[in-house]
Amino acid sequence: MPNAVRMHDEQAAFLSLEALVWRGAPVCPHCGESSRLGRLSGLSTPIGMWKCYACRKPFTVRHGTIFQNSHVPMHVWLQALYLLTATGERVSSQRLGQILGVSVRTAWHLKTKISAGLESAKELPGSWLGESAMKRVLREPFPDSPAPLQPGQAVCKARYERFLAATAGAAQHLDDTIFLAALNKLLRSRGAGADPASEMLEQQLELSLFDESAGGEGGADDEGLR
Ligand SMILES: [Zn+2]
After folding, report:
1. Which residues contact 69 (CB under 8 A, 6 or more apart)?
2. Per-residue pLDDT tens for 193-219?
3. Distance from Cα 59 to the centre of ligand 1, integer Å
4. In terms of DSSP H, where are the helices of 136-195?
5. Which of 58, 73, 121, 166 could form a cystine bridge with 189, CB 3.0-4.6 A?
6. Which of 72, 77, 44 is nearest to 58 (CA)?
């Protein structure tokens, strides 16, 4: 489906972000190269990874955004943002965690980062929505696959089904425009001039949140987070 953001799994989320940010013309965030670039697709390569053959550095479309260095998968970020914006409802951390299959602490962390990112976003030109490559959000059932689902895919499917049920049950009309505007703001909310110290602090905070929920008894809370 062209011009629609998809968020049922990690691959779909990255392809959607790439279309939104690069519009078919990827650019190396390190050196600005736009032609000698290649998508990395090894079995152990994280989804969304590219390599620049000019400066030899890897990058993803998340570089320079609040999503950079996050241990939370991109499709989980997108689903969280959708639930928090497009439904027009107040969603508690508990409820968000239940839907996304993450701990309450992780859900709280997502909410906090999203609201801080939206507040710090620069004012955007009013016309961007008209020019955006993405006009709406695709909310169709998880795609059928001829092969049995891998464990990671099964987790994605279960999460996406909870997400669809939650959006279908939203009291108000879903507004994709609000979600797209918020996503666009978040993608621009932290530019290249980010303060390295606060960035490192944020990273540590996020790591500590995940260390806690990934090990020991709390582990079952965070299904499918890499
Ligand atoms: Zn480069």
Report:
1. 199, 202, 203, 206
2. 445 555 555 555 555 444 434 333 333
3. 9
4. 151-168, 176-188
5. 121
6. 44
